[in-house]
Specification:
Shape of chain A: globular
Order of helices and strands of chain A: HHHHHHHHH
CATH architecture of chain A: Orthogonal Bundle
Strand content of chain A: under 5%
Number of helices of chain A: 9
Oligomer: homodimer
Number of domains of chain A: 1
CATH superfamily of chain A: Tetracycline Repressor, domain 2
Distance between the termini of chain A: 44 Å
Radius of gyration of chain A: 18 Å
CATH class of chain A: Mainly Alpha
Chain lengths: 190, 190
DNA sequence: GTCTATATATTGATAGAC
DNA sequence: GTCTATCAATATATAGAC
């Protein structure tokens, strides 16, 4: 099961390479050639799989969505307590601090870049924010905060984005740790 | 006084146009040609004033620095109370909400973009963060929070960045207003 | 499905007459 | 200080033999 044909595997390889390159160098900062080289393909061959660079980004966003959906499902499975589930979100941040300090938040930096000049693509990548927004809001509902659930979800998302951004700008993992501790306190006191 | 020679005025025009273009479309998203056109110059002429695009960015950063230094001085002059001075920082965010929702924070989005692939330039643009970081920390010192002044400054900067980012991603001015109200409360209760 | 060769546009940047 | 012409590099993208 889960067997991929050769073409499917090549396609999956391209998307995985592109995701990492987009994360490390940005969408605009990643050339078609860079993706081709990283994938071990030959120059013109990539066009057999993707017509345009924008198509690759769409596939990268879908891969992100699938991965994060699986992660959220895992958090829900691991614990029934809504506060523990919210803490799992914060744990993700501290657990990924090394890459966050180096490259920033994969969702935030992507959206931020695309929002400037590629509003069509930004709309697609905003689905990643929506995924977390809705999941977090559902947890706040579980806590009985139905009225303010969405506002609380956006607040927490914003806090997380701010932390990731400052930690990225100053390349400071200690700051990230200190700030996530405050987030944990905030959740505990809800 | 303050008279600019023709060359100096042309140079200042280029920098002002570049600043706006970098803000609206990003550094990488702004071509040399775009700056030339916006400045009303002729194609090759811009190289008389700036050897490289990176040089233009340096000048843009310095323009930003000068403007923000003047703004901070104005806030200090307007009120002696440290809390009121901190509130002036928050007022800036709400006062600029239209452009923040449209293009994000000029400092944050610039740093975020450059941090990905142009670490040399990011280091220069980080001076803009340092300017606010040091100024905010000085205000927390005035409040007697000497030990935690820098941590509080970075916390406030992060909160502001997170708010700007989410408001930008969702193009939502109401969210920005709601979140800055919370920042105001946070400052009042210090 | 793979590979070579190439088209076409745009980029940042330069040389040199005026 | 202004303008024209142009360069070299790189970008995305295509055609077509194998």
């Amino acid at each position: 099961m889960n067997a991929l044909s050769k073409g499917e595997k090549t396609r999956a390889d391209i998307v995985e390479c592109a995701r990492q390159l987009f994360y490390e160098h940005g969408y605009d900062g990643t050339s078609f050639s860079a993706i081709v080289e990283a994938s071990g393909l030959v120059r013109g061959n990539i066009y057999h799989y993707f017509k345009t660079k924008d198509d690759i980004l769409q596939a990268v966003i879908e891969l992100h969505l699938a991965d994060y959906r699986a992660l959220l499902a895992q958090w829900e499975k691991a614990d029934d307590d809504p506060k523990m589930r919210l803490l799992a979100f914060v744990e993700m941040i501290t657990g990924r601090k090394t890459e966050l300090v180096k490259y920033g938040c994969p969702i935030g930096t992507l959206n931020s870049e695309l929002a400037k000049d590629r509003r069509d693509l930004q709309q697609a990548s905003r689905a990643l924010f929506d995924l977390f927004r809705d999941w977090l809001a559902a947890r706040f509902c579980e806590l009985g905060k139905n009225e303010e659930a969405d506002a609380l979800a956006l607040h927490l998302l914003g806090r997380a984005q701010g932390i990731a951004m400052i930690a990225h700008v100053y390349r400071d993992a200690k700051l990230l740790r200190r700030e996530t501790d405050q987030l944990r306190d905030w959740i505990s006191q809800l």
